[in-house]
Amino acid sequence: MKRSREENGISRRDFVKTTAAGIGAAAVAGLAAKEIEGAQVPRHWDKEADVVVVGAGATGLPAAIQAIEGGASVIVIDANSDVGGHAILSGGNVALGGGTSRQKKYGIVDSPDLLFSDLTDWSVVEPNGFPDYRYNDKEVIRAYADNSAPTLEWLIAHGVIFVEKAPDNAGGHACGNSALREHHAAPMAWVQVQTGVPLDPEHQATASSGVGLIRPLEASARKLGAQILLQHRMTSLIRETPTSGRVLGIAAASQGKTVNIRARKGVILGTGGHSSNVNFRRIFDPRLTEEYQVAGEPYSYQDASGEIAAMSIGASLWGAFNQSGEFGQNVTKPGKIGCRYGYVSLTFQPASPVFARAGAIGLAVRDYQNLILVNQAGLRFYDETQEQYTANNYNAVNPYTPGSYLNAANIKYSPSNFLNAAMAGTGEATNGGGPIWAIFDADAVTREKWTVTPPHVDIAEGYFCTAGTIAELAGKIVNKYQRKPMPADVLQRTLAKYNSFVDAGKDADFGKLAPKFKIEKPPFYAAWATPVIHDTRSGLRINSKCQVVDLEGKVIPGLYCGGESAGGFSLHGLARCTVQGRIAAKNAAAEIPGGAATSKT
Length: 601
Known about the structure:
By secondary structure, this protein is an alpha/beta fold. The chain has 18 helices and 21 strands.
């Protein structure tokens, strides 16, 4: 039974507008409140196509191609100056299963039913007790499982070359316990964004890189006639009325002008999620304040623009647990220190077109015995050698019986609390843990074989500094995210205490296994080592057709979504993006202009 305004004190329409505007206005810099409330139907459309795709990445490019194959004309917009989003910088690991040709070739038994069972198994948990699949949306997963294997063959048909080897676990997170499913897109001779050059010929067909997925799909989309408009940022969705009727198109900003683009059949959102939007990501985890940088930046930004635009016309968010659950790569331990963008699988080189914004290559840490990690107050907080959250993959639970209570009962508990300790802060009534700093000495530099000068480290922006004494080092730690000066006396005591643990062969505070090296030989160094945000695993509510659903559980006609902007799915990486892009496009292309779709799931 529907409740009236009097019972609730607020109507559904007012709730949607108030909620979306309240979240969105604070969340996206430069997006005006009047835009967030939704655009009026324009008197004139500047451009039009059957299907309008927002985002030219791992969801949007497959969607564009699939829609054209379904007989639709397509316009794709992207806010960036090039296509690809985060996907083009990724490792190119595509966890497609259900019985792909590669799985069959290498004797890996899989099926859509087995894939569905794996990705909805309530009984699989990580050693810290967090479930990988328990809160997945079964309707969404069933559609993914049925379309997963065909998508691999479709990608191959559109020019994606996969490394010729058996599917494996490399780069996989929450891919399922029963079969190996990771396929790897080969970079071939494509120029990599993060380096500015192609990979050397010897490794072009054997390495794995997102450029090997994105560039062939871009070429195929352009060849088939997709119109790709770069530097066009969607500012709003245009619906018949703000909270009812069909989605008619979008408004976008480009070079200071508003461009209204009509979608005769449907709009597909592939905007990549919300990880770069500080206030939006804090809906799911209040700790994730501005000091936490994001994998994929500064090439592209996941600004929640798709989610906010859809919420402003009534869409619901979905699957919130998957975002805050402590498994996989929603938050990661930095893979490099001394640079702002330290995601483990992404290293920017000076020849990259975005290196001026990235600032430094960073220092990869081979052995955390060579340093200590301190918070902004100069205190250690955990054993530095501990790792980030884990995730389920093939054979991680062994023995394994689907749906058995023994799968969890047989797990040896391990809390995996490094990241939680890093984000805990220093006792103030303030959210966010503040910066984490790696402290080390000249001997550590020698052991690690580091080069501690630019472009390897970012001194200019305050992500790396050096000094002759520990007290001087504390004074040189000046960074826009460092909320207060680091106390020199505290840092000195922290180092003295740690050095005493080395003498004793035991870390009495955090249990670091047999601390090996004192930090005592000048010069001394401080390097940014703050956790890095990665996956978006919660977003807009969608159904099996990738149609966006509102707060009353009803489909918003003409609006589709897939990939990291969609909720209900915990899988890491590119596979869900490519599959859902295709599902959305099949159904959007089948729409009668201004009417309903014929089911194509």
